């Protein structure tokens, strides 16, 4: 079990189940195709876990309206997209540990477009996790659904839909849970949300996914030895190049969204699949950046969130060192670095002591030869170019695997009760991403569960058999990387590598375990980690 720490002491999450949750069996359990009885998202085991949680009694009520909107991204870029309350990122939600969030989602999206909200990184009650059809019925257009849960632990989080590839639209916002006993000393905060943007500029995320699903099947006599060279070829339903694309000089056709040749040593090879026209920091393009002002000598806490769908970012602040204090909401042993590598779904908190002048905060799209930009201004100085590359980007670069958990959140040493091998499978040839060779069945989420039992120490061995990296995210829990690594809910698994993660099964329900590349997850690299009833 966990050592006694602030998370176990503050464990909370009392929430009243909203309407629209999938009905449970009379005994509070469901059944899977494997024959095992599983805990239902609103079953008795979930209710029993809730009774152990405490609350401050304070409630934060808000309405989040998901609707079409024209968004000003700066620099004259004004795409039509979907957003919460007409802006992206949505308005920051901030509360304290033990406070209840009561958030009504009003779905005003186009006709027949269902949606939901997933509270990324929060260990909450299962029926509030926002994952149709596993934990709730999708919220239909014109309908509402109220999420109620206690923010049980401090940290930097965010929220987004969990339907289709809606993550790659403008429907996301930061969620900050403050610690009433905050041990860090700093003068101010700057929340930095990074995103890769396509919607309303070159197409929609659905257009992107349609193209990616074509894969790179046999081109009819073409040399298949160089798969990288085939990423520019479009394929019609017949398996031959589509007439809708224009042929290039070498006989290959140019795809509209697929990115060719994106490579990164930090990511072990292929960096990503999608060519994005913009990379945003706090909803602004690099040519018209967000500006944070401060004073020389101030100590600022940056809360960095990668809300992107296909892009890892190397993040640095020109002429400054970053002191890493947290990742995915959990404290780590402090580490001074020049830059961070942040995968999709990951969050990092860092401290910086501000210099005098104007400094670029650069989010380099790893392996994609593009970047997002924001500015930190404490004095006079000119604005750097949108393509600025501060030297820190090539300095000491830190990834989560190099960090160590702070003493008060490190898992207590215990015997592992069960080990599950989570084999990451698939390739770009057929775009058949999956876990253990079986793509997730959206119509029957209980079909192939990864079964755990409450009160057990669980080990997940992520075995990446593919030639691409995957940021693997577990809902409702945090895991520890190895015996002393950081506590995380999202971790990068490099191609050909194995990452072992430990967690205590202390939050009953059915929880998604998936790649946080929006397109890999939707293609099938997702599984149901379900508690046995």
Provide a descriptive summary of the structure in words:
The chain is mainly beta and 533 residues long. Among the domains are: 176 residues, Immunoglobulin-like (Sandwich); 122 residues, Immunoglobulin-like, CATH 2.60.40. The protein contains four helices and 35 strands. The strands form eight sheets. It has a six-stranded mixed sheet, with no helix packed on it. Strand 22 and strand 23 form a beta hairpin. The longest helix has 8 residues. The N terminus is likely disordered.
Topology:
Blueprint (H helix, E strand, L loop, with lengths): L5 H4 L19 E3 L5 E3 L4 H8 L7 E12 L9 E5 L8 E4 L3 E8 L10 E3 L23 E7 L4 E6 L12 E6 L9 E10 L7 H8 L50 E2 L4 E2 L7 E4 L8 E4 L5 E8 L6 E5 L4 E6 L2 E8 L1 E4 L4 E7 L4 E8 L4 E8 L19 E2 L19 E8 L8 E2 L14 E3 L4 E8 L5 E5 L4 E3 L5 E2 L1 E4 L4 E7 L5 E6 L2 H6 L2 E6 L2
Give a quick rundown of the structure.
The protein has helices at residues 6-9, 44-51, 205-212, 518-523; strands at residues 29-31, 37-39, 59-70, 80-84, 93-96, 100-107, 118-120, 144-150, 155-160, 173-178, 188-197, 263-264, 269-270, 278-281, 290-293, 299-306, 313-317, 322-327, 330-337, 339-342, 347-353, 358-365, 370-377, 397-398, 418-425, 434-435, 450-452, 457-464, 470-474, 479-481, 487-488, 490-493, 498-504, 510-515, 526-531. It has four helices and 35 strands.
């Amino acid at each position: 079990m966990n050592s006694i720490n602030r998370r176990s002491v503050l464990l909370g999450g009392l929430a009243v189940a909203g309407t629209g949750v999938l009905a449970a069996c009379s005994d509070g359990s469901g059944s899977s195709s494997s024959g095992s009885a599983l805990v239902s998202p609103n079953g008795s085991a979930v209710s029993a876990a809730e009774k152990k949680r405490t609350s401050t009694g304070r409630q934060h009520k808000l309405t989040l309206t998901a609707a079409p909107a024209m968004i000003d991204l700066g620099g004259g870029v004004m795409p039509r997209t979907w957003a919460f309350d007409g802006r992206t990122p949505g308005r920051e939600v901030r509360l304290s540990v033990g406070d209840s969030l009561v958030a009504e989602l009003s779905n005003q999206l186009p006709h027949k477009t269902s949606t939901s909200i997933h509270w990324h990184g929060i260990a909450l009650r299962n029926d509030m996790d926002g994952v149709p059809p596993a934990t709730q019925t999708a919220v239909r257009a014109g309908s509402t659904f109220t999420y109620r849960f206690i923010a049980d632990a401090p940290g930097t989080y965010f929220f987004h839909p969990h339907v289709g590839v809606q993550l790659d639209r403008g429907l996301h916002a930061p969620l900050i849970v403050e610690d009433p006993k905050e041990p860090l000393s700093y003068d101010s905060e700057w929340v930095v949300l990074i995103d890769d943007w396509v919607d309303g500029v070159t197409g929609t995320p659905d257009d992107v996914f349609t193209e990616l699903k074509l894969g790179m099947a046999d081109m009819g006599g073409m040399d298949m030895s160089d798969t990288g060279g085939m990423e520019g070829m479009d394929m019609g339903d017949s398996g031959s190049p589509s007439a809708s694309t224009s042929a290039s000089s070498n006989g290959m056709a140019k795809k509209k969204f697929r990115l060719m040749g994106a490579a990164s040593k930090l990511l072990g090879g292929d960096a990503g699949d999608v060519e994005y026209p913009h990379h945003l920091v706090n909803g602004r393009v690099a040519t018209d950046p967000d500006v944070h002002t401060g004073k020389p000598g101030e100590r600022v806490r940056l809360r960095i969130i990668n809300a992107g769908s296909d892009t890892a970012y190397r993040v640095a602040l020109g002429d400054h060192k970053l002191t890493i204090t947290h990742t995915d909401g959990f404290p780590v042993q402090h580490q001074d670095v020049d830059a961070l590598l942040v995968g999709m779904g990951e969050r990092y908190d860092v401290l910086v002591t501000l210099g005098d002048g104007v400094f670029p905060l650069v989010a380099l799209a790893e392996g994609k030869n593009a970047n997002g930009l924001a500015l930190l201004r404490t004095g006079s100085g000119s604005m750097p170019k949108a393509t600025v590359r501060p030297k820190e980007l090539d300095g000491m670069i830190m990834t989560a695997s190099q960090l160590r958990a702070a003493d008060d959140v490190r898992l207590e040493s215990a015997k592992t009760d069960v080990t599950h091998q989570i084999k990451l499978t698939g390739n770009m040839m057929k775009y058949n991403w999956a876990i253990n060779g079986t793509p997730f069945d959206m119509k029957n989420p209980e079909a192939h569960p990864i079964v755990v039992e409450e009160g057990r120490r669980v080990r997940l061995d992520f075995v990446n058999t593919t030639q691409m990296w995957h940021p693997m995210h577990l809902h409702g829990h945090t895991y520890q990387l190895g015996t002393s690594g950081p506590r995380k809910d999202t971790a990068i698994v490099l191609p050909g590598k194995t990452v072992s993660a430990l967690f205590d099964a202390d939050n009953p329900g059915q929880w998604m375990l998936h790649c946080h590349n929006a397109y890999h997850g939707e293609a099938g690299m997702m599984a149901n980690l379900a508690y046995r009833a």
